[in-house]
Amino acid sequence: MAVEIKDYYVQQDKMYVATDCIIFGFDAGKLKLLIFKRRVKPFIGAWSLIGSFVNLDENVKEAANRVLAEITGLKNVFMEELKSYGKADRDPGFRCISIGQYALIRIEDYDKELVEKHGAQWYDLDEIPNLVLDHNQMVQDALGRLKRKARYQPIGFELLPEKFTIPQLQQLYEAIYQKELDARNFRKKVLSYNVLIKLEEKDKLSSKRGAFLYQFDDIKYQKLLKSGYNFEIT
Fold first, then answer.
1. What total of structural domains would you count in the chain?
2. Are residues 128 and 33 in contact, defined by beta-carbon separation less than 8 angstroms?
3. Does residue 191 share a domain with residue 110?
4. E strand or H helix at 96, and its extent?
5. For the ranges 27-36, 181-190, 198-207, which has the lowest average pLDDT?
């Protein structure tokens, strides 16, 4: 139910507040972005980040969570506020400030029917079509934040399946940093942080011998997230 709000500033100029979600996933060794074709004027039908105007009765974070749930069916995923985009001429539709939020989701967990219903699609980062407004800049800013944050917090694990191999983990960080990493040094460094649990299972899709699967230790992982511990692995 909408909240009735008395407008004490009725004589002031009005503007809209929106939130745009930069939704990252990881699949087949590639970092991916979820986008869809814009459904409102101006630029209707052009490729866009997934977003919404913020309702009067909700916080910006609530609006971002609503957008993510409506499109992917997911809740309680890693999402963080990026920055505000407030240039006066950024949106020819009307004066509008957008609060960017970037999210990391496990690509096998989302509701595929919901995504298809909304016409959303995953694109490799190096194949993203031109996006409307300042959305290209938002993506670059979010990728920069992800690179910086991955150096001191193990947030990259948010993009992996529940069980993964060390080579898959390395592929993820290579996708984030956009450069190749030495396999031996990577394995030694990442195991030294003692946040991985080695399983008896093996992934035999990539080779006959197979590679052992791992899970991350959630308790130790949460402690690392909160501590700001140096997770430098490059």
1. 2
2. yes
3. no
4. strand 96-104
5. 198-207
